[in-house]
Write a structure and sequence with these properties.
- This protein is α+β, with helices and mostly antiparallel strands.
- It is built from ten helices and 14 strands.
- The protein has helices at 3-54, 171-178, 190-203, 215-224, 253-261, 268-286, 289-292, 295-302, 312-325, 362-372; strands at residues 110-118, 130-139, 144-149, 155-156, 169-170, 209-213, 228-232, 236-237, 243-244, 247-251, 307-308, 331-334, 342-348, 353-359.
- The chain has a six-stranded mixed sheet, with helices on both faces. It has a two-stranded antiparallel sheet with strand order 4-5.
- β13 (342-348) and β14 form a beta hairpin.
- It is globular.
Amino acid sequence: MTSMDHESLVTTMNEDETQDINKKKSLRIILGILGGLIITCTLLYFLWLRPAMREPISEPLALPTIAMPNPSAGDDEVSPKIPSNLTEIQYFTRPTPDPTTKPVCGKDAEWILLMVGIDYRGGDYLYGLADVIRVIRIDFVNMKVNMVNLPRDLLVEAPAGRFTEPDPYKINQAYLFGTPGWQGFLGSGQGAGALAEVIQYNFGVPIDHYGVINFETFINFINAIDGVEVNLPGPVAGGSLGDFPAGKQTLDGERALALSRIRTGYGDAFRVRNQTLIMRGVLNKLIQPKYLVQVPNLLNQFSGTFLTDLSIEQLGSIGSCFLRNFETQDLQTFEAPSELLTSGRAFIPTLNGNSFVYRWDEQFINWIYTSLLEK
């Protein structure tokens, strides 16, 4: 081998060694960057994202405790104020769970959930009347759901010292008085909290959690799941809201909202039944595998567009578990029997005049309890 060939070989070897050293340095740099990113992401998750996911999306509820009457108390004890149409304070007694039976989803045996749809088209929740009021008992042990509709024209009174507006109200006004734009409620939970307290005071039903949706979010959500299928028993003439043929049809968000609002010429019970059809249609859609896997993404997409005291983590884990284990035939819906309500007119101070209302008594409350506990 000549000296020139030897020098060339040495040079080549040195170049190869240099390239190997540079590759190792680059690999260490890349691994260092990746390691730094992993550590940063881990810290962000445990220090910020995970706690944020566990925080309630909206203001939590803090309903006052209703004291049970004490028969042994002396004459000096002041009885709590009760609604003027009742003879005593009403209490909903929850069933005692079997300690040997665990809930299928979550840690609680049941939730009593207040679902509210407000008649507000703005992108925020500054104002709004409660257009849809549903009290829902979710049994996580037997995976049953009982949904009770409360007509928005129920005449109700407010618990003492909790509202700045004089009662009586229509029940749908209770939500409005708690909104940030009105600020007529002194408790927590804003509009939903105000409505929950009125429901507890008048009917004795304690609310565990709430969810509120406005018109805009309703439309966008229906569109996000590619519409909702309903099967109308007959044609519906909605006037300015549009007409709907009888039979199966898939509605987009705007059409679903229109159907849920039609009552002129039909009455409020008709409107409630159509709302129930739409709710069942949404549930049927979400339990399909194609849409079930999209639930986490849907929650993230809409988390800032609805109100609830639940967290993203609760909605994601319990919601997904519930949809996987729930059968739609285990959803029971209940509409207020007309014979338990007395229609008429009453003076509503906040409306400065007489308005159509439904009056009710203990029989109506007993119907609510029976419906929530229906097997």
